[in-house]
Amino acid sequence: MKHLDLKPLLLGLLASSLTACAIGPDYKKPDAPIAPAYKEAGDWLSATPSDEAQRGPWWEVFQDQQLNDLEQQVNISNQTLAQAEAQYRQATALLRQTRAGFLPEVSVGGSAQRSGDGGGSTAVVGNRYSLSADASWELDLWGRVRRSVEASAANAKASAADLASVRLSTQAQLAQTYFQLRVTDEQKRLLDDTVSGFERSMQLTQNQYNVGVAAKSDVVQAQAQLKSAQAQAIDVSIQRAQLEHALAVLVGKTPAEFSIAPAPLLAVIPPATPPGVPSTLLERRPDIASAERRMASANAQIGVAKAAYFPSLTISASGGFQSSSFSDWISLPSRFWSVGPSAAMTLFSGGARSAQTDQAIAAYDQNVAAYRQTVLGAFQEVEDNLVALHLLEQQAQVQNEAVIAAQQSATIATNQYKAGTVSYLNVVSAQNTAYSNQRSALTILNSRLAASVALIKALGGGWHADDDSAKPVETK
């Protein structure tokens, strides 16, 4: 009997699987809303060259070495970042798992059994030894595996962008917290100076009262003013301690093992950050890149769902040795083998496949809407912080003028009180106004620094879509 030659058939099936088209729509990036220019950019940043845009360690633009050191610790020890890095490794492992679908699956097995049939004198007892290897390979004729790999690859890139986004958000949070702590140091210094000034005023009032020039009410007012300033100094100390604790957690430490000494605020003028062209925001924001990659993954899943309509074709092969005698187990007469293709197709599923396809299409539409919403939100963040920096700069100028005027008013009121031409109530009012204006100036400075960091974050920091910067970071 002539044996069937399967070689031409297998080669033909292999060629078909390699040249077959993938079912489902090929991915095309949808349009996103983009403005020709930023509405709030105005002329105030037009003179800033775009090549000053920060890449990499963007926080170095503030020229604060302690901030630089803390940012490096975030990249190593922050636990939120470690979670995102682990999720990225999961996504890349899933991609490798999906790619394994291109290759055949091979398994081996062996058994040794003793069995009996019947009972009494007619019982038949025998041994059976088996050693086999099996291989199967599903030909990707309709692109199901290819679309699955495409989806997993897009998800892995989305996870990489998520990691970059978490890193950028954590770095920005640390910078804003650090600047708030330094502003709190300046507030504490201001309060200490204010307390010292109020102590001198109280001593002056006490001396005036001792010689019968001032009333007892003036002394009481001076004491109340001094105690109020001392109470505010304690409140600022509480705020500073809590900010220090927040910094400790951001760098992956317990508050007990972390401290940062008071120091002057170095970044008294926020650096100019050119916003660039709006269209570049799509490449500079990792969250936008993540949303776009998830959209591509959802598109590939449509092909996976549609491939279920077509039959699956599998080539299987098995071989090994099987014998009832251990001594003849591994011998040529005990050998067996089989090879050949098999096909399977679902003829009726009660609408399940159609529902799965509709679900995949709806999921894609959802991701398209999410992508466009992410783009809109990104433009809003940029515009919000551009206008904040613009107007806060003007507010700071006006507030500084108010500080100078209030300080002059306090000096005049104090001199008039010494001369006996005004009551001490005038001094208290002028001094409190001066202190209030100085504290407002510090609050505005903190808002400007926070908005400067937020703008850098809104512009994507040092991340770029072409640079796959979401590589695993060293974590503890």
Automatic annotation (TrEMBL):
GO terms for cellular component: cell outer membrane. Its main location: membrane. It is a lipid-anchor. Keywords: Coiled coil, Lipoprotein, Membrane, Palmitate, Signal, Transmembrane, Transmembrane beta strand. Gene3D superfamilies: Outer membrane efflux proteins (OEP) (1.20.1600.10). One of its GO terms (molecular function) is efflux transmembrane transporter activity. The keyword Ribonucleoprotein does not apply. It is found in: Cell outer membrane. Residues 1-22 form the signal peptide. Residues 67-101 form a coiled coil. InterPro entries: MdtP/NodT-like, OMP_efflux. Belongs to the outer membrane factor (OMF) (TC 1.B.17) family. This is RND transporter. It comes from Stenotrophobium rhamnosiphilum.
